[in-house]
What we know:
Blueprint: H1 8-24, E1 26-31, E2 36-41, H2 43-76
Antiparallel strand pairs: 1-2
Helix pairs in contact: 1-2
Amino acid sequence: MRPAAISWEEWKRILVMIPLLALAACQVSKDEQNGTVTATYNEDVAENAAADVGNFAENVASDVGNEADRIGDKARNVSVEVDTNKTN
Length: 88
């Protein structure tokens, strides 16, 4: 199986998701007594999200490659019969 090429549209989607993943790894807490807000970055959550995205991208690429192979197989298995006998 060959790796599938990622289109520019797919790259743009991936680039948009990276900051969102980083934001998802932030945990915000508000201390009502002190009137403060604390944002902490949870590395474990970020690693898990990055792994999930990587697995998803790998699965999508595999599916695209499989579909391309399937279409190629269909194209190779086409037979055409031509009748050259003219009947008027």
